[in-house]
Amino acid sequence: MSVRPNAVIRQLNGRPTIFVDGEPQALPGFNPTSNREPFDKSVSFFANHKMGVYIIQALMQNFWRGDQVFDHPTPADGDVLYDVDEQAATILHHDPAAYIMVRFTPNPPVSWRQIHANELVITEGHTTGSPSFASDLFWGYDGRRIICHRAVL
After folding, report:
1. What strands, in cross-sheet order, belong to the sheet with 53-57?
2. Of all helices (H) and strands (E), which one includes residue 114?
C-alpha cells in the first residue's frame, strides 16, 4: 500500500487550491455515477485523460434501509451499485496514480422516505423527497448512520 498523501485546501493567489504534500496542484476531477455499467465505461474513458482526482460516492443505502441502521455495509441482493472499495479498485486499475476523494450526502434511502413521508419537505403540496431540517427522526438516524459509515472508511 502506498503512503497516503497529505492533502489540504488553502488560498493561493486569492483562490482555493488543493495542496498535495505541500505542493499546489491543478487537479482535474471526475465524479462518476455509482451504477456499475456507466461507472465502468466512464472511468475507463476518463482515465485515459489522467483526471487526477476521482470523487466517489459512498453508498448510504448499504448502511441504512427502512428503519434499520447497520454498522457494516449490507448491499441489497442484486444491487447494481458499486460500493466504495469497488469504485476505488476500478479507478486504480485504470489510473494507478489517481487521487480518490470519498464523499457522501446525508440523504435517507428511498426505503426510509417511503415509510416516513411526513418527515420530508413539502412545498405547495409537493413532497421534494428531501428530509425536513425540522425532522428530529431523520437527524437521529443520520447521526447514527454517519458514525457507522465513518467507522468503515
Report:
1. 29-30, 53-57, 99-103
2. helix 110-115
Q: How far apart are the C-alpha atoms of 62 and 70, rounded to whole Å?
A: 8
Domain ranges of the chain: 7-152
pLDDT of residue 76: 65
Query: What tens digit of pLDDT does each residue of 54-99 get?
Result: 988 877 666 777 888 777 777 666 566 677 888 899 999 999 989 9
Q: At how many degrees (to 10) do helices 84-94 and 36-47 cross?
A: 30
Residue 150 and residue 147: Cα distance in Å, rounded?
A: 5
Distance (Å, rounded) from C-alpha 126 to C-alpha 27? Answer: 40
Percent above pLDDT 70 for the chain = 80
Which fold, 7-152? TIM Barrel (3.20.20)
Residue whose grid cell is 493561493: 12
Cell numbers linked to 22: 505541500
